[in-house]
Amino acid sequence: MTTADAKIETPSRTLTAKRTLSWVLGLPPAYYVLAILIALAPAVSATLINPNYWFVILKQSAPLGIAVLAQSLVMRVRSIDLSVSGVFAFSIYLASSGLLNSYPPFVTVLMTIVIGLAVGLINGALVAYVRASAVIATLSVSAILIGIVQFMSSGRAPGSTPSWLRVLTSGNIYGLSYSVIVWIGISVVVALAFRFLILGRYFRAVGDNPRAAEITGIPLARTIFVSHTLAGTLTGIAALVQVSALAVGTIKPGFDTFMNALAATILGGVTFGVDRGGVAGPFVAVVAFSFLFAMLTVFGIQEPGKLIVQGGIIALAAIIYGARVGRV
């Protein structure tokens, strides 16, 4: 190799190294969090690095993972959906209360998805066409759903989940739960849709600048409406998966359902109008959260401590994003 060749190759390697470093630094915080947790896991507990335990982590993550996909859809167009807890509460009650026991199993499956779809349509209409605040509109819908469940149940927990439905979580292929397969399948479909369909371009354009997108001819209201409709449908599917993981139904899915979904979405690189993480980022974030909570459980940290850690991670993610765009 001549001296001239060496001089040409050295800048090329330097440029490649800089590009690689820039790519790594541009990854959503979820990747860093998961990498750190995996590095710490052997020192915490040998169980945490057992491959079989990772299958359990994925199985527990499936409902949240699908809910995060739903949340990421609306956040891409600068909206938000706070009706997650209401959809979960209503769907869980419907599937475990015995109201649909006289019908074929597919009716229960369809009803939970239809509930999510209906809520998505209502949210979309209120936010996109009525121009109501997304926070107020979706929170109101959630409160109404939870109120209906409380009224119908008289405050009592419903019955047990049908055995055929529990197979969705307990059944597996080579150790991988059916629920995880559903989660991965939906993630792939969403990723392909954003990559190849015009809807993905609409979502990105609206997220970048809603007014500019509308001026260029993109149907702003319709795009926001579709995002909420799709999000509601995915939330219904997530609720169905959550029901399958429960032996006994509950009327209190908890505020943490929404908080975890929002936190994982942000940690995965999807914020209001910003989509750095794609579909993979939120997926990694969900796994990171589940792994983090498992690690905190090993240390004996209860729910209050987990909420504090969760809030700290969200704040850290916000600081990182702010620093990247020069706001910090």
UniProtKB/TrEMBL annotation:
Cellular component aspect of the GO annotation? plasma membrane
Q: Which InterPro entries match?
A: ABC_transp_permease (IPR001851)
* One Pfam family, short name: BPD_transp_2
State where the protein is found: Cell membrane
Name the source organism: Rhizobium paranaense
How this chain sits in the membrane, per its record, is:
Multi-pass membrane protein
Keywords for this protein: Cell membrane, Membrane, Transmembrane, Transmembrane helix
GO molecular function, one example? transmembrane transporter activity
Going by the entry's taxonomy, the superkingdom of the source organism is recorded as Bacteria
Membrane-crossing ranges are 21-41, 53-70, 82-100, 106-127, 134-153, 173-194, 230-251, 257-274, 281-301, 307-326
Official protein name in the record: Ribose transport system permease protein
